[in-house]
């Protein structure tokens, strides 16, 4: 991953390899990913998860700041939270997912890889965003979920503290989606920075990252009840 400007120790490489093996093994009994071939896994999961480190010096500084708190909302099999934690060990990481079986798997990964200052939490995003333990507690919020940005913003921005940043991982063409989410971003206390586009190193995979800064507290009415954001986006 040196082509991405990311230099890894032998221990970090060992952890990433073991993580891959655990995902593939668990995938035999539960649906975590359709991507299991090693090279494709590296490109579409690992390199993609680490895209903010390669894309922008400002995002890299946020992720490598000592003691920064990050929450990965709707983490699934642990992307991007676990690769980011391995590569940026000073991060304090929360992995949030709504499915208990996935959370149990993630805890097993944490224990097996002997990762410190990281936890897996079983909660829906809408519940976590209202819980004082998590609401407006994080410097960084990340999501690789496939939901539209207007929906993702309601799920994610409540977790960011004022001055924090939500980084949405999106496909190559995100300008139209960003325009459609303008109202939601404003209502939820955010301000979008210009999208950052890149091609993942040694691939032809295009990725756009949308950084949304938290400039004021999210109103207490948000996030709405589970399912509401999807049915009726802001």
Q: Sketch the topology as an H/E string, one letter per element.
A: HHHHEHEHEHEHEHHEEEH
What spatial form do the alpha-carbon principal axes imply?
globular
Mean pLDDT: 93
Radius of gyration from the alpha-carbon trace, in angstroms: 17 Å
Report the span from N to C terminus. Answer: 39 Å
Largest sheet descriptor: 8 strands, mixed
What is the multimeric organization of the chains shown?
single chain
Number of strands: 8
Residues in β-strands, percent = 15-25%
Which residues sit in consecutive blocks of at least 5 with pLDDT less than 50? Answer: none
Indicate the percent of residues in helices: 25-40%
Sheet/helix structural class: alpha/beta
Number of discrete helical segments: 11
Molecular structure report:
This protein has eleven helices and eight strands. With 234 residues, it is an alpha/beta fold. Strands 1, 2, 3, 4, 5, 6, 7 and 8 form an eight-stranded mixed beta sheet that branches. The termini are far apart.
Name the features.
alpha/beta, 8-stranded mixed beta sheet, 11 helices, 39% helix, 21% strand
Short description:
By secondary structure, the chain is an alpha/beta fold. The protein is 39% helix and 21% strand. Strands 1, 2, 3, 4, 5, 6, 7 and 8 form an 8-stranded mixed sheet that branches.
Secondary-structure map with pairings?
Elements: H1 10-26, H2 38-49, H3 51-55, H4 57-64, E1 69-73, H5 81-87, E2 92-97, H6 100-113, E3 118-122, H7 125-128, E4 138-143, H8 149-156, E5 160-170, H9 175-180, H10 182-187, E6 190-192, E7 196-199, E8 206-214, H11 228-231
Parallel strand pairs: 1-2, 1-4, 2-3, 4-5
Antiparallel strand pairs: 5-8, 6-8, 7-8
